Amino acid sequence: MNPQLPRPQLSRRQIIKGSAGVLGMMALPGLLSACGSDDGGSGSDGDPIRIAVTSATSGALAIYGRAVLDLAPFAAKYLNDAGGANGRKIELKIYPNNGETADAIRAVESAVRQDGFEILTGYFSSAQSAAIQQSLDRLGLLFIDPDAQADGLTGATCNPLYFRTVPSVSMNLNTLADGVRGLGITSWSALCSDYAFGHDAYDAFKRLVEGQPGTTVAPGHFPPLTHADYGSYISKLLGEGTKGLFTGVAGADAITFFKQASQYGVLDRFDAIVGVNSFDVLVFDAIGDAGLGLYGVPGYDPALDNERNKKFVEAFTKEFGREPFYIEANTFVALEMLLAAVAETDSTKPAALAKQLTGFRTDTIMGNVELRAEDHQIQRENWFGQIVRDEATGGIKWGNTTAVNKDNVATPVSAECKM
Amino acid sequence: MTLTSEDSMERRIKADVGSGNRRPGGPRLRPMWVVKVGLVAIGFLVPLVVTGPYQRHLVVNAAILGIFGLGVAFLIRRLGMVSLGHALYFGGAAYAFGAFSTHGGLDIVPALLLALGGVVAVALAVGSLLVRSRGIAFTMLTLAFGQFVFTLAGLTQTRSVTGGDDGLPVRMNGTLLGLTVRDFSNPTTMWTICWAVVTVVLLALGLIGRSRFGKLLEAIRENEERVRFNGSNTYLPVLVAYVVSALVAGIAGVLFALYNSFLSLDVLAWTTSGNALIVSFIGGCWTATGPLWGALIYTVGNAMLVSGGRNEWQLYVGVAVIVVMVFAKAGVVGSLQAQWVRRRERRQPPVDLVRTS
Amino acid sequence: MAIQLLNALAYGSLLLILALGLAMIFGLGGVFNFGHGALYMFSAYTAYSLSSAVSFWLALVTVPAVLALVGYLVDRGAFRFLRSRDPIELAIITYGGALVVENIVVMVWGTQPRALDAPAPFNGSVSVLGDPYPSYRLFVIVFSLAVAIGIASWLRYSKMGLHVRAASRDLRMTAVAGVDTDRLNAVVAAVSFGLAGVAGVLVAPYATVSIDMGARILVIALIVTTVGGLGSIGGAAIAAIALGLIQVTGDVNLPGWSALTPYVVMIVVLIVHPRGIAGRIET
User: Fold this and answer.
1) Is residue B117 part of a domain?
2) Are B133 and C257 a contacting pair at CB < 8 A?
3) Which of A123, A171, B183, B274 could cross-link to B179 by cystine, CB 3.0-4.6 Å?
4) Which residue in B19, B44, B57 is closest to A113 by CB distance?
């Protein structure tokens, strides 16, 4: 037993008095809100181009976040050395976050409100981007997003200050479907992770592929995200007797699935296996030979034949000892477009830049690209490819890449997007 | 066995803090009330001192996390029960508010009331199942309920309501106390709201703690069998305390939704419950305001340490948790108060404090 | 169907090894170890590096041994002084430890997921009733069960095992009877950490090695331990295999909803039978 001091009970009157006082204070917010002032750093023209870069450095997104953190300073230096925008130089500051949306918001608030940044890029999940979109008007922030692929970002939640230099999920699926038509396979099985992206991918694949007469797609399998054991699904897939396999699993899940499928000897049973957004350079080492032969959308082709790209890939390879992949390339395109817009307007103010970027066409490492005026979605060609042996390293890499025309990649402007 | 604070140091803190620094002979309690009202008033003026908009953003975040922590700490302080599933109420209230506003098209006030009503209803249902268990079993059950809802919210089948991994942008309609969406995203306004809520919650939890009901809870914490033996029902009081604690977490969740107007699944994850627990323990579960200070330390520390290139935040939190739990389990505020009490005792040994060795 | 059964066994036997470690250290030392998942992840990364550099089989021997040594030292250096603390406080301390270990792994290995090929001679597949089945999984099942049986026999037939069982029931009485319970605690901590090491090494060629693998399986393993009856080893074994079965059949027949099964099982078991399957709970 713990003896306690006898405590006097409060009288009812005291309680009522106290409560009334507090309620009175609750009327204060209205008074004080008048004191709140929006601030915005005012930089006069001729100043550097100040860009805040936020990116996940822990959590599940960190693998890509750290790649962007390495790329950004390199890209800034590369572009500055090439003359910047009419002599204006890029000035970066990095704001790490832990991958959760609330922390990404904290990072953005810190960049804008503490350090007065007005332009944002970096590495973002779709949820993070949607969260940041909510605050753009309030913060007076220009947001160029090279990563988040959810359709809604340039659809239902599109924003005058938001621009996207990565194709949406639907655009990548259009690309995939275009490539798949050439494979001549008429029966498909499908396995996608059980989340928004996986289901969208399955629905779109089924719709696009079944558009061809005589082609069927079996009902999809949807294992939960971050599943440790695909054994039961693999057994099911084997029983379906189809010729092709469509997969919509990403990141660590893709590694797990393909490793286990190869242990089961599944990969030889299908004539073709296609995956959407399953693979990039960062997981190639882990996946190893299990990935060989997979078809997919690499998102970028380092072998693109234009001067800008050749010089960029050469400098990048010299710095990092490997070729860039789509996330790095998309981030670089974001910076290229921004620089071109600054050169055009001779301003670093969000309003002026947003006006310039709307419907803006310019040359980048991915050729001549456009940020569509209606929804600020990048319009460009895209690529379909296959994972092949990398003779130089003995590992694997994207190869047999074919370009898909931008008209076949594009999706119509969403009716939900109102700016 | 439940979490109790057996050593005399903490008993002194509790005796001191819990009784409002009162000595026998009532009149001396008045100055304390003046001080407290003064502190509340000063709190509203924080924006005058914290002038940077980012710093204001941080103190708002700290206040929201702190209120959440107050809810979690209430169960620990009064009953010694540690919940690892209060994200269910924090995130659940936020999502309910978001869904009623966005999908239901309700105005802020009814959406808010429905969300909090929902929290009470769910807490009653869940609580009626789990308040019989104690100790680790209780903690694990709360974890299971929390993860159940977290997993449920991420399922494809519920995606049309929660937005799944893409998150839920909250579309608010109407006004609250004459304020609109734009005002809620302003950290200065939000601070005032949060501080008012902090005051109300502290007052309410304090009154509960001091009431007969609070006494009963503490008696249950110290010796449940004996309370039952005395003829008191112990099931209902624990259930009510659980609902109160859930409601406080839910209020914090609604504030979170109002301020951010965007929700993602991580507000429901068990790590969110874990953070509330961490700030409570760092600040001190056994004091009235410990969780608030813990939240402030956590939020400001995070902002200071996570800038520049790399992110070792987890490491600092891990070390801090170990150090506090091993060497100062009364938390930062609790330990400081104990120091103060000790020093005062040395000058003027109180006759009425029961000492045990 | 035979394949699905084997899958359930494979997943269940991994859970078993993890839950055994958790149950032992809780049953005796009162440590509800939230750091168990982090140890498992750390072991998987170490196994990945050792296998790539030398050999998987070396990793399977050395990693658990090193982890056991760490467990022994942690008990002597830390847990020993915290014995009087409430299990919840210990749990929170180990949670802090998990955060630290996780961050150290990120510092050493980075955040990229890694994968390991199954070691020879288990790198192919064998035919089970006409269907191909990875032979490494069979190895995981057999090896895990062997380890579990080994631990069970040690507890049942050795003198030290007798002491452990006695101390799990009543630590004070066992100490009064002249058993050095401090040493006993350290040995059990060593075995528990070692088991986390075994599970970590075994899983490396089976699933992907990633930073969040520990936190992910921890909740499930804690559930298995609780459902089995806190501190009970037999109960944990039954719960692990049963949960493996339920999970695997649920995956196939109730896609989506099956992710909820571990939580539902735990809630139902604990509400119907608050002391878990084995019914021994002291808190």
Assistant:
1) yes
2) no
3) B183
4) B57
Tens-place pLDDT, residues B151-199: 898 887 788 888 877 788 888 888 888 888 778 888 889 999 999 999 9
**Residue with the two structure tokens 């180990």:** C94
Question: pLDDT at position A92, please?
Answer: 92
In A156-290, the DSSP E strands lie at 162-164, 187-192, 216-217, 244-248, 272-275
Q: For residues A397 and A246, what is the distance between their CA atoms, to the nearest angstrom? A: 20
Residues in chain C: 283
| Terminal-to-terminal C-alpha distance of chain A | 67
For A188: left if phi > 0, alpha if psi spans -120 to 50, otherwise beta; the answer is beta
Type of residue at A368: N
Under an 8 A CB cutoff, do B130 and C82 touch? no
CB-CB contact of A296 with A387 (8 Å):
yes
Question: Could you tell me if A199 lies within 8 Å of chain B, comparing CB atoms?
Answer: yes
The domain covering A171-296 belongs, at the CATH homologous superfamily level, to Response regulator (3.40.50.2300)
Residues β-bridged to residue C131: C128
Kindly provide the residue ranges of all beta strands, DSSP E only, lying in chain B, ordered along the sequence: 168-169, 262-263
Which stretches of chain A score pLDDT less than 50?
Answer: 1-45
Question: Which CATH superfamily hosts domain A49-167+302-380?
Answer: Response regulator (3.40.50.2300)
Note down the domain range covering B97: 29-270
Crossing angle of helices B212-222 and B53-79, in 10° steps, is 70
Note the pLDDT tens digit of each residue in C143-197: 999 999 999 888 889 888 888 888 877 778 888 888 888 888 899 999 999 999 9
CB contact under 8 A, C263 and B145: yes
Beta strands in B206-297 (DSSP E): 262-263
Cα-Cα-Cα-Cα torsion A383, A386, A391, A392, nearest 10 degrees, comes to 40
ipTM associated with this complex: 0.85
Q: Domain map of chain A by residue range?
A: 49-167+302-380, 171-296
Taking only residues 194 to 213 of chain A, the set having a beta carbon closer than 8 angstroms to any beta carbon of chain C reads 194
Q: Which of A60, A72, A66, A67 is nearest to A125 (CA)?
A: A60
Q: Which residues of B touch A197 (CB under 8 A)?
A: 165
Q: How far apart are CA A159 and CA A135, in angstroms?
A: 10
Tokens linked to A170:
């639907």
Cβ <8 Å between B54 and A110: yes
Residue burial A53-87, b: 16+ Cβ < 10 Å; e: rest: bbbbbbbbbbbbbbbbbebbebbbebbbeeebbee
Sign of the CA dihedral with C233 first, then C234, C237, and C239 last: negative
C252 neighbourhood in chain A, CB within 8 Å: 232-233, 236
What does the pLDDT read at residue B1?
40
Q: Residues A229, A201: contact at Cβ < 8 Å?
A: no
Query: Chain A partners of C6 at a C-beta cutoff of 8 Å?
Result: 231
Measured between CB atoms, does B141 come within 8 Å of chain C?
A: yes
C122: pLDDT strictly greater than 80: yes
Total H helices, total E strands in chain C: 11, 2
- The domain spans of chain C are 2-211
> Which strand ranges, in their side-by-side order, compose the sheet holding A90-97?
A90-97, A49-56, A119-122, A142-145, A162-164
Q: How far, in Å, CA of A225 to CA of B106, rounded?
A: 33
Q: C4, A232: Cβ pair inside 8 Å? A: yes
In chain B, which residues have pLDDT < 70?
1-31, 307-311, 347-357
B79 falls within a domain: yes
How many structural domains is chain B composed of?
A: 1
**Is C113's CB within 8 Å of A259's CB?**
no
Which residue is it, tokens 């550099």?
A: C53
Q: What is the mean pLDDT of residues C2-10?
A: 83
> Is B74 part of a structural domain of the chain?
yes
Q: Give mean pLDDT, residues C127-132.
A: 78
What is the model's pLDDT at position C264? 86
